[in-house]
Amino acid sequence: MNRYFSIGEMAKLNNISVQTLRLYEKMGLFKPTYINANNKYRYYTEQQIIFLNVIKYLKNIGTPLLEIKKIIEGSSENMYEFLHNQEEIIDNKIRELEKAKTLLRQQKIQLGEQLQLKQLDVVIKRRITERQVIVVKCEEKLSPYDMIDLYMRKLGSVVESKGGLIPSQYGCIYEMKDYEKTEDIEYRAMFSPVAKNSVMLSETDEISHLTIPEGEYMTIAFQFSPRNYMKPYHQLYRYLLENQIKTQGKIYEFSAPNRFKSEGEVDLIAEIQILMD
User: Which of 78, 114, 126, 215 is the most exposed place for a label (fewest CB within 10 A)?
Assistant: First the structure.
């Protein structure tokens, strides 16, 4: 013997609203078994619950109501094909979200490191973990006075073609020497940090992977300005000489914006780092 439920009872039993059941009826998705001719009250049977569960399931995985109507009017084979395709869509979304999470975490780590640079114009020894970067060699003489945006865009174009993104932090590599003026510095390469294994490169790409090793670094952070670049550089250079600190001779210069609005002067915080022997 069938047990009948009013629209209110059916809604409460299935944790949905009466308005939702009325909408489903209007769309032909889920109709009551019996409508009282006198008072127009709607009644559903216990056996209908399983069909409502199917609708709720399809809706929960993001299926539009009109699409649900087509599915439930089709065969089991159609349902299987739809679920198979939907699984692939969800897998792709998961991969996209994982990539977004990786980029978010990378940017968060870089900003966290930048916020820790509270002491500017002070030589500091600190241990820095291994870092993965992508690097492009400089094909012309470049110094802190030169615009390096085109080189960074070359990095960005390749990384974006591989499904990645360039973060706000970037860097340059050059040899430690007793430079007299800023123009004497010659950048050997430009780089941008990337999450490990996040960008797959081929031998034909103009850029390559580089691992900046973990170790004890002598560093100095400062407000980036080509005009005043040599002041913190000479401060670090003299410190190394006076304290007879041996290094591996390669300067890693990291720069990142201190604010993110495009209007006004560019405000960058830079840090030059050199690995101790």
Answer: 126
Nearest-CA neighbor of 192 among 106, 99, 97, 105? 106
* Tokens standing for residue 87: 């699984």
Instruction: Compute how many other C-beta atoms are within 10 angstroms of the C-beta atom of residue 24.
Output: 20
Backbone angles phi, psi at 266, to 5 degrees: -70, 130
Q: Does domain 116-276 have CATH number 3.30.479.30?
A: no
pLDDT in tens, 166-183: 777 889 999 999 999 999
Report the distance separating Cα 162 and Cα 197, nearest Å.
12
Task: Tell me, rounded to whole angstroms, the distance of Cα 223 from its chain centroid.
Answer: 27
Q: What is the rounded distance in angstroms from the CA atom of residue 156 to the CA atom of residue 202?
A: 15
The domain segmentation of the chain, as residue ranges, is 4-73, 116-276
> Global pTM?
0.67
* Strand ordering across the sheet containing 268-276: 123-128, 215-223, 268-276, 247-257, 170-175, 189-193, 131-137, 208-212
Q: How many CB atoms lie within 10 A of CB 71?
A: 18
Q: Two tokens at 210? A: 């580089």
Give the class (CATH, top level) of 4-73. Answer: mainly alpha
**CA pair distance 113, 31, nearest whole angstrom:** 59
Residues 86-128: tens digit of each pLDDT? 999 999 989 888 888 877 887 787 777 777 777 899 999 999 9
CA atoms within 13 A on the CB side of 63: 22
